[in-house]
Design goal:
The chain has helices at about 45-50, 95-105, 110-120, 135-150, 165-185, 195-200, 220-225, 230-235, and strands at about 5-10, 20-25, 30-35, 60-65, 65, 80, 155-160, 185-190, 205-210, 210-215, 240-250, 250-255, 260, 275-280, 285-290, 295-300, 305-315, 315-320, 335-340, 345. It has about 350 residues and is of the alpha+beta class. The structure holds adenosine-5'-triphosphate.
C-alpha cells in the first residue's frame, strides 16, 4: 500500500513539445484516482512517468514518500495494465500471470498459489491452460489484470484498459475493476478519456487539458460545481448547454434575446457587466404545460428510458433530457422550465464559474 505524490511534474519530449506543463496531484493510500481528459492532454505521458517508462523533465514523483525520479520501473513496485493487454502469445494464461514472479526467481509453489488466488478472484480458474488467442477480449483483459494482481504491487496503473472492449463488456469490466479495488485496497491510478468511466469508478477525478490540471475533485463535486467551462463541458452526457449573453435588469439575456432566470444564489454584485456564459445541463430542464420558455422541437430522440430533445427557444437551441414519457413531436411547440438551483454562470473570457 502506498501514496503517490506528483509535484509540479513537467514533460518536454526531445522534439521540444511540452506534453505535461506542471501537474501536482496527491493520491492517498488506497484511493482510486482517475486521470481523464481529451486525446492528447498528456494523461498517458503522466502515467508512464509514474511507472518509470518515461523520464521526468522537472518536478518530482514520490511513491510512499520516496522520490522515484531516478528509480527504474522494476524497482518502483508498480504494476501497469495496458490498453492492448500486452500478453505473451506463446504463454498460457497461468504462465502469463506468473511471468513477473518467475523472472524474479520466486518460489514456484508460491507463484502457483498466487496465480491460483488471482485466477479465482477474476473467474479465470478454468482458463489457466489456454493461450491468449483462445480467449475473448474481456478474458484477455482479466488476464492482464491478473498479471498485475499476482505481483501484489504497491500501486496499480491502468492505461485505458477497457477501450478495446465493446460497450456492454466495458460496463461489466469497469464494475469488476471497481469491485477488485474495493477488495484489494491497492492505490490505483486509472487513465481514461471516457468521462462516464471516470464518474462511475473514481474516488477522485483529475481533469486534464493541454498538459495542465483543470480541476481535481470527487465525481459529483465536478458534476455539481465545475470550476470552469472546460470541466462543465467535459463532465456530463449529453453535454451542458452553454448560452452566451449578459445579465440585464436581474435576468440573463442571450445574444438572440432569450431571457433566462439567474442561477439561484448568484451574487449580482460579483458579476461583471461584460460577456457571460449561462450553463444548464439537459437533465435540469423540465417540460411544462403553460408557464416557462416557449420553443420549437427541432430534434427528438427517444431511447425508452428517456427522451432527448433539442428545442429552439428564440433562436437558441437548447438540449433537454426528459426522464418521463412525454407525447412530444418533432416540429411541434413546447414549453420548458430551467431548474435555477442547477444553473451556472461563467465568465466568457476566463471560463471561470461564478
Ligand atoms: P490519448 O487519449 O490519445 O492516448 P493522452 O492524453 O494519453 O492521449 P499522451 O499520449 O500523453 O496523450 O500525449 C500527450 C501529447 O504528447 C500529445 O500531443 C502527443 O502527440 C505528444 N507525444 C506523446 N509522445 C510523444 C513523443 N514520444 N514525442 C513527442 N511528442 C509526444
Amino acid at each position: 500500500m502506498a501514496t503517490v505524490d506528483l509535484k509540479d511534474v513537467k514533460k518536454v519530449y526531445p522534439s521540444g513539445f511540452e506534453a505535461v506543463k506542471g501537474v501536482s496531484i496527491a493520491v492517498p493510500d488506497k484511493e482510486l484516482c482517475v486521470l481523464v481528459g481529451p486525446s492528447g492532454c498528456g494523461k498517458s505521458t503522466l502515467l508512464r512517468m509514474i511507472a518509470g517508462l518515461e523520464t521526468i523533465s522537472s518536478g518530482t514523483v514520490a511513491i510512499d514518500g520516496k522520490i522515484v525520479n531516478s528509480t527504474g520501473p522494476t524497482e518502483r513496485d508498480i504494476a501497469m495494465v495496458f490498453q492492448n493487454y500486452a500478453l505473451y502469445p506463446h504463454m498460457t494464461v497461468a504462465d502469463n500471470m506468473g511471468f513477473a514472479l518467475k523472472i524474479k526467481k520466486a518460489d514456484p509453489a508460491d507463484t502457483a498459489s498466487r496465480v491460483g488466488r488471482a485466477a479465482s478472484i477474476l473467474g479465470l480458474d478454468k482458463l489457466l491452460d489456454r493461450y491468449p488467442r483462445q480467449l475473448s477480449g474481456g478474458q484477455r483483459q482479466r488476464v492482464a489484470m491478473g498479471r498485475a494482481i499476482v505481483r501484489d504491487p504497491q500501486v496499480f496503473l491502468f492505461d485505458e484498459p477497457l477501450s478495446n472492449l465493446d460497450a456492454k463488456l466495458r460496463v461489466q469490466m469497469r464494475g469488476e475493476i471497481k469491485a477488485l479495488h474495493q477488495r484489494l485496497g491497492t492505490t490505483t491510478i486509472y487513465v481514461t478519456h471516457d468521462q462516464i468511466e471516470a464518474m462511475t469508478m473514481a474516488d477522485k477525478i483529475v481533469v486534464l487539458h493541454d498538459g495542465l490540471v483543470e480541476q481535481i475533485g470527487a465525481p459529483l463535486d465536478l458534476y455539481d460545481r465545475p470550476a470552469n467551462l472546460f470541466v462543465a463541458g467535459f463532465i456530463g452526457s449529453p453535454a451542458m448547454n452553454f448560452i452566451a449573453g449578459r445579465v440585464e435588469e436581474g435576468v440573463f439575456r442571450s445574444a438572440s434575446g432569450l431571457t433566462l432566470p439567474l442561477p439561484e444564489g448568484i451574487n449580482l454584485a460579483k458579476i461583471p457587466v461584460g460577456e457571460l456564459i449561462y450553463g444548464i445541463r439537459p437533465e435540469h430542464i423540465r417540460a411544462t404545460i403553460s408557464q416557462g420558455i416557449a420553443g420549437t422541437i427541432v430534434l427528438l430522440e427517444a431511447t425508452g428510458s428517456e427522451i432527448f430533445a433539442r428545442v429552439d427557444c428564440a433562436g437558441e437551441e437548447i438540449s433537454c433530457l426528459f426522464r418521463e414519457r412525454l407525447a412530444l413531436k418533432q416540429g411541434a411547440q413546447m414549453r420548458i422550465e430551467i431548474d435555477r438551483a442547477c444553473a451556472h454562470l461563467f465568465d466568457a473570457k476566463t471560463g471561470r464559474r461564478f
